[in-house]
Amino acid sequence: MTTLHPNYQLYRLAAEQKSAEVTDWSARISWVVGLIVFVAFVYWLMRQGWKWRGSLQSGLPELATTPDGFPGGESLLTLSGRYHASTTAGQWLDRIVAHGLGTRSRVELTLTEQGLDVVRPGAADFFVPAGALREARLDKALAGKVLPEGGLLVITWAHGDQLIDSGFRSDHAAEHQAWVDAVNRLAGTTDNNLTSSTEGTAR
What does the pLDDT look like over 104-125, one tens digit per residue? Predict the structure, then answer.
């Protein structure tokens, strides 16, 4: 019976280990490439869905722009925070993407007797005349984004023949109630009977 030299056995073990490492790397690379392709496919589907939704909403009129000389009088309230989304009023998952309304961004809000000025760095600004304001409320979710109870300021406004819910979150959430009161006063609405759109859906 032939006995292998110890050095030869060590060489074979090292060669087998190296071969296994090469095989492992090949499997890992294949797995990573597959994952990248899958993520790219999901992203493509999301973009196609976004474009499709935008085409369905192509009839939405262009957004109003800030009037010359705004603000003409004293600002009632100002707010710095984030713009989350806009949806069809009362339908918290029916996101509106036309005219850039689907883009989340930082936001600076200014409310005067003329209306609501929405300035969004890196996204489309828009203006809501006072006559188009319908109501404001505290909510917890909009367009799939869920926050703590009362963590979202939702302002409902009319644009063309559509009612829109736009969601904002102040850097200082304690400001939200003052905004609800001021917007409802400007719109001639009392908030006693306002309910969360998510609660309404649940019922």
Answer: 999 999 999 999 999 999 999 9
Residues 110 and 45 in one domain: no
pLDDT digits (tens, 9 = 90+) for 22-61: 556 777 777 777 778 767 766 555 665 555 555 555 678 9
Query: Which amino acid would we find at residue 59?
Result: G
**Pair 195, 117 in one domain:** yes
Looking at the 3D structure of the chain, how many domains does it have?
2
- The parent domain of residue 98 ranges over 77-202
In our burial notation (b when 16+ CB lie closer than 10 A, e otherwise), range 13-24 reads eeeeeeeeeeee
Residues 34 and 83 grouped into a single domain: no
Token duo for residue 142: 């909009």
Tokens matching residue 192: 């006693």
How is residue 198 written in tokens?
């998510």
In eight-state DSSP terms, residue 115 is E
